[in-house]
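A.,

Following up on our hallway conversation. Structure tokens first:
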């Protein structure tokens, strides 16, 4: 296998994988259309690979255009996510008040008493066994 053949194989594999991922996303979004499309292909794996490669190439092209578009609108300064924003320098005073649910408190108390009773029974059984 020469270098060009290997390069083409890797590129085709990448595009088929990319097409498969894009098809999976489409299948999640519209399962009926995907089922119809793939049932037409059946078990013809060469045709499936070709279609996935075409979809992958299209997805790759769209991704490149998106990156080019973002980079052309880039003004040379990446935003610093750790820099404080002007709104974050304002001081806000809040008071947290615990929410007390009496039903939950009663349930916790009952469970605590049950655990205490179980612990006493275990201690009594240990004492009887000794």
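Then the amino acids I'd put at each of the 130 positions:
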């Amino acid at each position: 296998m020469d270098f060009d053949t290997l390069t083409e194989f890797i590129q085709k594999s990448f595009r088929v994988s990319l097409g498969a991922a894009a098809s999976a996303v489409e299948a999640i979004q519209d399962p009926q259309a995907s089922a119809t499309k793939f049932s037409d292909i059946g078990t013809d794996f060469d045709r499936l690979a070709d279609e996935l490669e075409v979809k992958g190439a299209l997805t790759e092209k769209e991704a490149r255009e998106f990156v080019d578009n973002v980079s052309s609108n880039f003004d040379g300064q990446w935003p610093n996510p750790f820099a404080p924003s002007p709104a974050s320098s304002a001081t806000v005073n809040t008071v947290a008040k615990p929410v007390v649910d009496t039903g939950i408190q009663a349930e916790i108390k009952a469970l605590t008493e049950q655990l205490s009773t179980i612990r006493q029974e275990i201690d009594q059984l240990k004492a009887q066994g000794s």
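The first helix runs from residue 3 to 29. Curious whether your intuition agrees with the design.

B.
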